[in-house]
Amino acid sequence: MKRRGFITLLGGAAVLWPRNGFAQTPPKHALIGFLNNTSKAGALPYYGSFPLGLRELGYIEGRDYAIEERAADGNLGRLATLADELVGLKPKRADEVIE
Predict the structure, then answer these.
(1) Which residues contact residue 70 at a Cβ distance below 8 angstroms, ignoring those fewer than 6 apart?
(2) Among 2, 19, 70, 93, which lies 20 to 30 A Cα-Cα from 39?
(3) What is the pTM of this model?
(4) What average pLDDT does the segment 75-79 reach?
(5) Alpha helices in the chain (DSSP H)
(6) Which residue has the higher pLDDT, 20 or 51?
(7) Could you give the C-alpha distances from 69 to 37, 47, 56, 82, in angstroms and in order?
């Protein structure tokens, strides 16, 4: 009789066990917004070395961070709209991402 009760208890626990307990949590990525008033090609001298510097620090794009770029192509009136786009992506603060 004790064996039957124990087996029933184990079966009930297996059914009620939370299913998401073994799921992987998605990785946290820092989102870096890059906004400039020139074209992407025009900003390359300033922007090009930034990912290289992050790689030297041990950060890898796609694993640790993502970069969203917006370029106004010389039209300063577009900067506000492009900035709103970047804010709309809801980036996380660095202290929320880095543990």
Answers:
(1) 33, 34, 35, 36, 82, 83, 85, 86
(2) 93
(3) 0.60
(4) 92
(5) 2-16, 40-47, 49-56, 79-88, 94-97
(6) 51
(7) 11, 10, 21, 9
